[in-house]
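>> Question from a student workshop board

For tomorrow's exercise we were told to take the sequence and the ligand below, predict the bound structure, and bring the output to class. My setup keeps failing. Could a helper post the expected result so I can at least see what it should look like? The ligand is pyridoxal-5'-phosphate.
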Amino acid sequence: MIDKMTKSPKPSGTMSLYAEVARLKAGGADIISFAVGELDINSPESAKRAGIKAIDDNFTRYTVSDGIAELRQAIAQSLSAETGQNFAMEQVIISNGSKQASFNLLAAVLNRGDEVIIPSPYFPSHLRQVELLGATPRLLETSLAGGFQIKAELLKNLITDKTKVLLINSPHNPTGAVYTKETLTGIAEVVKENNILLLLDEIYSGLVFPPAEEYSMLKLFPELKNNFLIAGGFSKAFAMTGWRVGFAAGPLEIIEAAGIIQSNTTTNVCSISQKAALAAMQQDPDFVKKLLPDLISKRDTAVELLNSINGLDCLVAGGAFYLFPSVKKFIGKTYDGHKVETSQDIASYLLRKHGLAVVPGESFGAPGFIRLNFSICQTDLQKGLKRLKDGLEQLQ
Ligand SMILES: Cc1ncc(COP(=O)(O)O)c(C=O)c1O
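>> Workshop helper replied:
Here is what the output should look like for this input. Compare the format with yours to find the bug.
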């Protein structure tokens, strides 16, 4: 066991960075953080009230491991409406965030040596989950020039007889890319031809900025319904990261297996959080829609400033709340006699010398980039962007 843990690479890089920022802030440093992976707003009032009521009602014991029926039912209904497929409650389990949902799904289907294709840049936990399960991640390169879309030709080249799963995430962390209909069609053809599973991490669902459009792959390609696994949750679109409520959905047999894994590892999601998530869904179904104008305006503010920095290249995010500019042109420059050799060095320089936390691309398998979360209050956004501009422009 110790062997497995020491071999498995690193804890979550973003989590280590948050710890470093928290430490600096606790020591009194003036830090603006573009690093966190959550919206800078509070959870819906409906969720908070329902959580308090759950405690007052003593709804504080174990629930069924798969989650309370009302919440599973509500998610099944919402998935049915979104996909045009009929999802039964039994095809949904409630998990501790979408992270546990994807882990349970992968654990249910992967055998040692199986291969999982993951587009790169990637969400680090996707890669680590695959590795922890003794399977092999195969990275599918995407590029800034190509809008970080998946190219079907490159995808085809990665398929082997060991390929079990293609794991995609749209809107995408860290790039902010939203897959176009053309990209999804290319993916669907490869999935169909090779009869592999498609795990959709939909945690940023709803956070899409027109003219980008969010398509349900299941609606577009209903013939693939037995190939689909979905991981989603309340963390991002309902601003409920701390409550830890997500869900896994898919074919009954796989969901039952994921449920057995969950019941033997963590049992149910916090009973109070489940009631809160149900209330958020039922009473604030448009919560995410109302956030979009503010997010779009913040994205535009950030993109405008980034474009004014000579040497910075950036995709205009179609969704989520991240920008992922290339800082390659600054690598090799110096400050105070020190050379910045990597985007990690640039992130350390920005943190130490300019009080700005960004996540280096290395965390996402993409050296030469930095990730910025633009969902912070306007004052800090403006201040942080100025620090970024000053910091990069002062490199010589
Ligand atoms: C792509 C992706 N999936 C999953 C998660 C984790 O979501 P949750 O908090 O629901 O576990 C994140 C969080 O940053 C993410 O970016």
